[in-house]
Amino acid sequence: MDRTEYGGTRSVLQSDAGQPAVMSGPVTSPGNGISPDRYGRRPGRRIIMDKKTTLYDITGQESGIVVYDDEVIVCNWAQVSPYGGLPRLGPAGGIIGWPGELKVTAKWTVEDIRDVLPGKLIVDDETYGYEGMDVLYDLNGDIPALWGYQADTPHAAEPLTDKNGNLLPTPGTVYEINNNVIVIAPVDWC
After folding, report:
1. For residues 15 and 78, what is the distance between their CA atoms, to the nearest angstrom?
2. What pLDDT, in 10s, does the model give residues 15-66?
3. CB burial class (10 A; 0-12, 13-18, 19+) of residue 136?
4. Is 118 exposed, middle or buried (0-12, 13-18, 19+ CB in 10 A)?
5. Residue 103 in 3-state DSSP?
6. Antiparallel, parallel or unpaired: β 104-110 and 71-76
7. Long-range contacts of range 147-152, CB-CB < 8 Å, 24 or more positions apart?
8. Looking at residue 40, what DSSP letter applies?
9. Chain center to CA of 116
10. Any bridge partners for residue 146, and if so which?
11. Global pTM?
């Protein structure tokens, strides 16, 4: 076991392997002389992790891509939504954490995360745009890098290429959250 989280009135324990911790036994009370183990648990307490509260808890990484229909946000969700919920575009144009319950309704892996995005990148000479998707927020130009184009921004993401300069696909894990939001956790992103 590596941590205990408290959400509402339920305690949640997570094992080192990221699996729910389940404990069962006779019901005890703090005053019955049974001492807690090194994790603060007392025998008899049953704890089941039935939902995770943050995208970091779900994906195991700090950043990725969130897709709402055809709107795309690339962000560090651990920073903008540390207490749960989904990243959304705020009124001033930045990303804010929008509170709400997160329930994973589907999960799968893909060889190329571009296949999951709602559109594609269109490059015309030295400029680029998007077809079929509205990229609301992508501070480091990660979406253009997926198609081999390095955006002209500070700290721009570099395209993933092999030793000959050929564009490589970016694999990842895709999560459907609450039946309507797609969260993409690309491999090797932090």
Report:
1. 20
2. 344 444 443 333 334 444 544 444 444 444 433 344 668 999 999 999 999 9
3. middle
4. middle
5. coil
6. unpaired
7. 147/114, 147/120, 147/121, 147/123, 149/121, 149/123
8. S
9. 15
10. none
11. 0.70
